[in-house]
Amino acid sequence: MTYLPGIAFQILQSMFVVLAAPLLVGWANQCRAWLQNRSAPNILLPYYTLAKLFHKDAVIAQNASPLFRITPYILFGCMWLAAGIVPVLATDLPFAPAADIIALVGVFALARVFSALAAMDIGTSFGGLGARREMLIGFLAEPAMLMTLFTAAFISGSTQLTTIVETLAHREFAIYPSLAFAAVAFLMVLLAENARIPIDNPTTHLELTMIHEAMILEYSARHLALIEWAAAIKLFAYMTIGIALFLPWGIAEAGDWVALPLAFTVLAVKLFFAGAGLAVIETLLAKLRLFLAPEFLSTAFLLAVLGMLIHFLVRG
Amino acid sequence: MTALEVISSPLTGSLLAAVSWLAISVLALIPAGNALLARRLVFPLGALVGLALAAFGLQAIWLAPQQMTLPLGLPDLPFHLRVDPLAGFFLMLLGSVSAGISVYAAGYFRSETAGRLSLIGLQYHVFLASMAFVILADDAYLFMVAWETMALSSYFLVTTDHKLPAIRSAGFLYLLIAHIGAIAILLSFGVMHGGHGDYSFSTLRAAHLQPFWATVAFLLAFFGFGAKAGMIPLHAWLPEAHPAAPSPVSALMSGIMLKTAIYGMVRVIYDLIGGVRWEWGMLVLAIGAGTTLFGVLYALMQHDLKRLLAYHSVENIGIILLGLGMSMVFIGFGHPVAGALGLIAALYHTLNHAVFKGLLFLGAGSILHSTGLRNLNDMGGLIRNMPKTAFYFLIGALAISALPPLNGFVSEWLTFQTALQASVLENSVVRSLVPLFAAMLALAGALTAMCFVKVYGIAFLGQPREAEHAVGTPSADHSGDAGAMERFGMAWLAASCFVLGLFPTSFLLMLNRICAQLTGHGLSDQALESSWLWLVPTSSEQASYSPIIFLVVIIAVTLLTFLLVRHFYHGRVRFADPWDCGFPEQTSRMQDTADAFGQPIRHVFGPIYLMQRYMPDPDDPAPRFSLKIEDRHWYWVYLPVARLAEYVSSKIALLQQGKISIYLLYSFFTLIALLVFVR
To answer: Is the ipTM of this complex over 0.90?
Structure first.
């Protein structure tokens, strides 16, 4: 029964991520509005939107296949699973060994493939367009993400996210050139994968340049709510992965329950700055032309690979 | 030993199975005139034999090697047979995958006439038997006989529709490259043999070659088997020949026949030559990476479904080569445990690819049968007419895209884990190169996912693209979904995708036996002692993966979400027309086509392709856009070689004067020359 507290904590942590994710989105939106000289929406607006969407009747195209209807649930399930793997508050996650960083990238890929398939299901031109662009972003972002994680895996000698974070949290405070490269690459991947400026614009709708929004154009009500919620969890998960890899200090170690309140506070502070930082990036940058996106992402890929090589060169 | 024991021993059992396939091929000729009987009797019998062979193969993995000598063949050159764990594994692959394909074939060939069906039955089972003999062979002589039988029987299967000129030329190209490869393999055996006069594998194994001759033997074998496996730049026959054959045969060729080449590589490099060098591994890695990337990038450009799948076979052979190459590098540097992991990853992917590529080719066959279509640009919305085929195809597509928790992910995961061992390597250049190859694998994996979103989205989802095809083309039999036999074949392979994906540890133990037998080293003890739930390649601190827990959690969470939404809210649905974005005229022709889906890739990787595009004038009243993409290798490799061959033969043709006096003169000079030398 030694697992019991761990499992309880596991469930609590993933519930926390699922429930807190829209708050992070609300905070980032608020910051962006301030930076852009607009009056900011309520920080709880994402929750209100979700509640509103859940109450509505779903409108579905006549020729939708079952795939279209189960995809939102699969997306949500994938993101929930991802939330269970990432050490957010503590590294004591009994579920984490079931899926390492490669499997984590696999979960995101699974979600992406299903959302792209669902986008093509109705057979409208926007759906196919969105799916094609999403896969274009994905095929470059996914290897870049994997290489970033491999750099961390080489440093810690493990592909378990919990082990990586424990190793990284214990290292002395010094600048690892390989990790610096990886961090830049990771930030670029984070922006691309979460449909943020400069790759995509989360506030855009019905523009020819949209990617994520084009894919979910046919969704409404509870399906749309699940997709939006899943997107919020994805952003939260990416941010916490970034925090865990590059700023792990303050996370609670396995079995160290006393450290939890501290870990929670530290995490809240980190996310506070991360959300604000995201808003700053989105305000300062302009959206790239679609065909500059591959260049942006291949830069990320090369930076990540470079980081990995530097690890070997500095060590060897 | 009692008779029962003899029959149930893996070696005699597999020999009997292979002979039964030969018997079935003769049997196929008997019910000529009765197509239904031929179809319903011959192919299911073949499937049963396949199952038996798989069972014997499975048994052989756990037993000590067995060998026997058959008093057949040439005088003084009897046939030697042997099963060891490696052969057992490939026999299991051959038997289990072919069982599914044979059941499918029993349903698929329903519109063939009796005469053609008898011929197909004959060639099909000779093909299967020859592959079994390739794996069972324990001397170079039987190996080459079986290898050539395999090439010839598959050539006749490829040219089943020999009335079409395109198929005849595809068959010729296949035969040509198969024979160039066979010559290289033969030469490789010659080098290994080094003048002992005995071609049995045990002699070849015992011979100690000089490093130079070992490398020559390796290069010849790698080239020869690589030609059969379809590695770049010897792949050109593959996208021509595989689509030309009937779909079950395409599945056999892509799923199993390419794997006999992998078997040959592993057998020759690890077993017969031995003493693996890391330089060889780097060559295999480089070619593997090229094959992987070129394969998937060309696959993305195809709109013929079967050609696309054939290019994906090229890609997957590349992935297998990446695993093999890493294993050779690690073994060459004296890290046999990491080397064993790489070999296991490669063999695991070999089995996985056989299963999911077989499944995908069968799915393509069902589409072809029902709609008469092979061009993706004409398909669309098939999930509504063929929901069951769509379901199985989806499993295959997810598996090949290396998505967890299916089988493709497990073998790519193992390959990545092998690459992550790179920090133990002593040579710093190699140490940084190995993870680079992993990066290529990651890129190829993501591109594969894109390609199968394209295939599935265009073929099965959306709306039918061509109005006339919605009704069906003349060659279609409008049967809607696949028949029961076809579905059974696909279900068998789809279930295998799940079994291989969810219970990797039992297969890991199996493959570990092969490594231990070939290299003398297996995985670490901690990897072998882990429970069936956890896949642990090295140690549980380094990496672990549990597909079952993964699947259970994802299903549980998805179901929980569904129930919670239903409980707290409602499940009300209204149906409406798709939203037209305020643009009233939406036709099915406005959907993405397969070529449109590949457009971003053409943009990003433009220089790789040889493109001929015709853009219509904006004022053209009947605009037509045309795009032709060719494989650059034709111009880089094949045409120069062909021109050289033509040039050389034209020079040799000068000898041929057609006058008997000149030929007599040649004989005279030859005699003089011989007298000078022999005396």
So the answer is: yes
